[in-house]
Design goal:
The complex is a heterodimer of chains A (about 110) and B (about 110). Chain A has about 110 residues and is an all-beta fold. Helices cover about 0% and strands about 50% of the residues of chain A. Chain B has strands spanning about 10-15, 20-25, 30-40, 45-50, 55-60, 60-65, 70-75, 85-95, 100-105, 105-110. Classes of the chains: A mainly beta (about 110), B mainly beta (about 110).
Amino acid sequence: DGGITQSPKYLFRKEGQNVTLSCEQNLNHDAMYWYRQDPGQGLRLIYYSQIVNDFQKGDIAEGYSVSREKKESFPLTVTSAQKNPTAFYLCASSIGQGPVEQYFGPGTRLTVT
Amino acid sequence: GESVGLHLPTLSVQEGDNSIINCAYSNSASDYFIWYKQESGKGPQFIIDIRSNMDKRQGQRVTVLLNKTVKHLSLQIAATQPGDSAVYFCAENIRGSQGNLIFGKGTKLSVKP
């Protein structure tokens, strides 16, 4: 089956620890995205990557970092600098080349205490 | 599951009725619009999209209408079913923004059997 996988579904961390969220796609998509969703809110863009070895900050990049070493993988690290890391994190991908549908993964719920 | 429905506008309809979910946008340079459905604790699923050179687009049981004069987008769901209960998001792409989507806050659709 083609699609986007995110793991784990639920993640718990202590305050002050960095944590990396996994996102893998086998759709052969060029573009990948990370969003954050808080209760009662829409999705906010954290980082995006249009091509391997290149990525750009979105609207709320502070306290996050990413890498894009492979086309199919776009891991997100939530660092200790992120003031309110508890949220639902969604990864998406698209074929790129302008505005088209983005396909979403199932999400990772991160809780930091 | 993820409580994405907190404090959202809610539309309650009877099973079998038609549903209309509305979305306003503010940027006249927006050239692509998309509707997603999100069930609790899951990633958004594509419903239908429309480009700014169109006024209407139909899918299976769904229709999207775009009124560029008043910057308004609507999603019509025919013969609404209990399985349609979810949060619905509209998103827009602003021309020149590399396909990045800006999401609205969402509307919760509740279908009464």
